[in-house]
Amino acid sequence: MTDQSFDVVVVGGGPAGATAAHKLATQGHSVMLLDKAGRIKPCGGAIPPRLIRDFEIPDSLLCAKITCARMISPTDRKVDIPIENGFVGMVNREEFDEFLRVRAAEAGATRETGSFLSVDREDGMPLVRYRTKSGEQAVRARMVIGADGARSAVAKQSLKRGMTKSVFAYHEIIKAPDDGANYDAKRCEVYYKGRLSPDFYAWVFPHGKTASIGVGSAHKGFSLRQAVRDLRDDQHLGDVETVRTEGAPIPLKPLKKWDNGQDVIVVGDAAGVVAPCSGEGIYYAMASADMAAECVSEALVTGKAKALATARKRFMKAHGRVFLSLGVLQWFWYQNDKRRERFVTMCADKDVQQLTFDAYMNKELVRRKKVAHMKVAMKDLAHLLRIVRPVKPGTEATS
């Protein structure tokens, strides 16, 4: 039994959980934000301009501003894609996530550090059990939001759903080397090489004083650690000091249902909202949480639990086409090195670059550019039919 009760208990204090807690607290609801101590998710840390704008992220949180993305093919062909009239922000998750949690607390949310155990029932209402250094605790809630990651215990218990299709990501945070031929503090590098990842990609992302070197794959038995070692050796970064290492699954397909139809809903990685192909998740986690918080608030005010289902519908209406397009792209182009080579060749095309970055920066497909879409579709078809020949190995293209 417990005397503590809240309108909402949010399980998980990452970008999704902290965003939901902040939104609900600003709307006047009593909120508890439950989060584990010392939790840092392996993450490239890229946030697009729309996230910075929509969620009012201060410039001081950006540890780097990326102005170029470099794509590297299996034959080491390099395609530089400049980010014109803007940048992609990079954040360190330990600082970024804490900022969001503090902001939620300043809005009125109660922070609690502990490990989630279960959602039980007491008088027909959720009873959230968790463990702290002082022992097992429990609080009542009218609503529960699960923002507890890809292996969400909330989703497993309350929605009877496990982890969706995913890749496992592993990265090593190193001290940032000096700028040179193998490293640029304003450039993200993405490696499409089967020996580094048979079904996804590897990366080097600058983080100001540090850098993230990582790889993702869904293939069982593939050594992610060895792949990262190989990438570091390839880029002459093997002797650079390693700060820490991290690994975690990344879901690549949204759950078909986010709520239990009564008083529990999941968001972020727990809901599977990470973009296929790119693995980008911070923006989508925060967007899903913002929408879910609106629906939870409506359910609390009206007493109509059906409002919870609206969150997924709104999210998929806004981002479903992007997820579908990226899923098809990943399924086809990541299958083998011949297709990866053609994929990187296609990325050198200015129309492809423009539409890709418009979609990334604004988080929507740019429908108004019909001629550009048609041109990209024809070029894509040419690559599919192998009408276009890949550029010779070792060729570097700068666009």
Secondary-structure class? alpha/beta
Largest sheet entry:
8 strands, mixed
Uncertain runs are 370-388
What fraction strand? 25-35%
Number of helices: 10
**Quick one: overall form?**
globular
List how many beta strands DSSP finds: 18
Q: Order the strands across the largest sheet as they lie in space.
A: 16-12-15-14-13-5-6-18
| Helix proportion range | 25-40%
Order of helices and strands: EHEEHEEEEHEEEEHEEEEHEEHHHHHE
Q: How widely separated are the two ends?
A: 64 Å
> Could you report the average pLDDT, rounded to the nearest whole number?
88
Cα gyration radius (Å): 22 Å
Structure description:
With 399 residues, the chain is α/β, with parallel strands linked by helices. The chain has ten helices and 18 strands. The strands form three sheets. Strands 16-12-15-14-13-5-6-18 form an eight-stranded mixed sheet, with helices on both faces. Helix 1 runs parallel beside helix 3 and helix 1 packs parallel to helix 6. It is globular. About 5% of the residues have low confidence.
Which features characterize this protein?
8-stranded mixed beta sheet, 7-stranded mixed beta sheet, 10 helices, alpha/beta, 34% helix
Q: Gist?
A:
The chain has ten helices and 18 strands.
Element layout with pairings:
Layout: E1 5-11, H1 15-26, E2 31-35, E3 46-47, H2 49-54, E4 64-66, E5 68-72, E6 78-82, E7 88-90, H3 93-106, E8 110-113, E9 115-122, E10 125-132, E11 135-146, H4 153-159, E12 166-175, E13 187-191, E14 202-207, E15 210-217, H5 224-234, E16 242-251, E17 264-266, H6 282-302, H7 310-333, H8 337-347, H9 350-362, H10 370-384, E18 396-398
Parallel strand pairs: 1-2, 1-11, 2-8, 5-13, 6-18, 11-17
Antiparallel strand pairs: 3-7, 4-7, 5-6, 9-10, 10-11, 12-15, 12-16, 13-14, 14-15
Helix pairs in contact: 1-3, 1-6, 6-7
